[in-house]
Amino acid sequence: MGDLAKIFKAYDVRGVVPDELDEQTAEAVGAAFVEVTGARSAVVAHDMRESSVPLSAAFVRGARSRGADVVHAGLGSTDLLYYASGSLGLPGVMFTASHNPARYNGMKMCRAGAVPIGGDSGLAEIRDRAAELVGSTAPPTGSLIEKDLLQGYADHLRTLVDLSGVRPLKVVADAGNGMGGHTVPAVFAGLPIELVPLYFELDGSFPNHEANPLEPANLLDLQRAVRETGADIGLAFDGDADRCWVIDERGESVSPSAVTALVAVRELGKYPGATIIHNLITSAGVPEIVREHGGAPVRTRVGHSFIKAEMARTGAVFGGEHSAHYYFRDFWYADSGMLAAMHVLAALGEQDRPLSELIGAYARYHASGEINSTVADQDAALQRVRREFGPRGTVDELDGLTVTGSGWWFNLRASNTEPLLRLNAEAADESKMTAIRDEVLAMVRGVSV
Catalytic: 253? Predict the structure, then answer.
């Protein structure tokens, strides 16, 4: 039996297999999921990890034992599961541990219409009920239907972003042996795209590199391939392919903030005056550009639950995060790295400039990126920085400590799970950004400046 208290997180379930998450636990979670949500039917999909097939099968047994009919979509990306939940009108569960190492697995759960289930919206109740049900089995009374949804998913995305008329593009895509290897060929089939695949073989042991594009080391192969093949763009997907990182034709990383601004402008062209969500550590250029194009920017805390809740509250058409998660009202308010990539491809292919020139209009400031520091007493460090920097600018505490000065800002916030403080700094001038970054880090880490 797994340790439910340990594997149920704020937004999903995740743990080491089989020590923390095993089939008995998955079966109990399946039964609890049906009881807590009241689902009469549900849809399930899984990634390419070796443990995903037996764990998802166990979950299905548990769900069917409580009378629920289950549509099993088999292999899929997380955004394919969201498509299934939205298009079928069913609650859903995706078996994946995203970018985590091979020994991990987990579950992302949603209600019908891809509405997320988190700690304060049913996940805690599912955990508690599953703990009561572990070890108890009952025969399945609900039906099981196996349904391949890949083509429907690909067709749906192509209705949201039309790439049929773009100029021919050479695209290198690095799936990291994750689910992008399954979904990218289906989405790009028949389009004017010459696809150069990297690590499309589905392999949950991740033999080439971790499927985590936020780590620069995991982008090196893609950057090299873009330069060597003369490609127009590179795309890197994480393990469950719900995040996408963009590389320009020079092999340089494109900031997710610049992608957020680009997609926001495109969505505002479709929905004039609409609301756009951005979290508080995206570039200051994002709200500026949104306003310049007639939109209404709304700032949120870091975390997908805050983004999705604020999108639903405001009716926002799009939301973007620094972590390369992108959310779309037209996609049931859910995130899809593939859909964001298609917007970038459309913007690139509708004009003749290279990506580096196109994206330059959306990258206005110099950013530090997120820098982590191990700190035993997070509160003391935060107060130290607040006392020093508070008089220099405007302070807000929406999420951690944000100080905004003339032409610069930084945010310092604590990790929810580790003894870490995370710093993001930005300025119009690179030397100013560097100076602010280094001064804050020195205070956080207790070294003299």
Answer: no
Catalytic residue (one of 51, 52, 98, 253): 98
146: helix, strand or coil: strand
Give pLDDT, residue 448. Answer: 42
CA 421 to chain centre: 21
Q: Give the per-residue pLDDT at 378.
A: 92
Instruction: Name the nearest CA neighbour of 181 among 207, 209, 210, 203.
Output: 203
C-beta separation of 237 from 184 below 8 A: yes
**CA–CA separation, 38 and 48 (whole Å):** 29
- Residue 222's region, left for phi above 0, alpha for psi from -120 to 50, else beta, is alpha
pLDDT category of residue 1 using cuts at 50, 70 and 90: low
Q: Could you tell me the domains of the chain?
A: 4-148 (3.40.120.10), 152-249 (3.40.120.10), 256-360 (3.40.120.10), 366-445 (3.30.310.50)
Tell me the pLDDT tens digit for each residue of 41-60: 999 999 999 999 999 999 99
Residue 102 has pLDDT above 50, yes or no: yes
β-strands 69-75, 92-95: how paired? Answer: unpaired
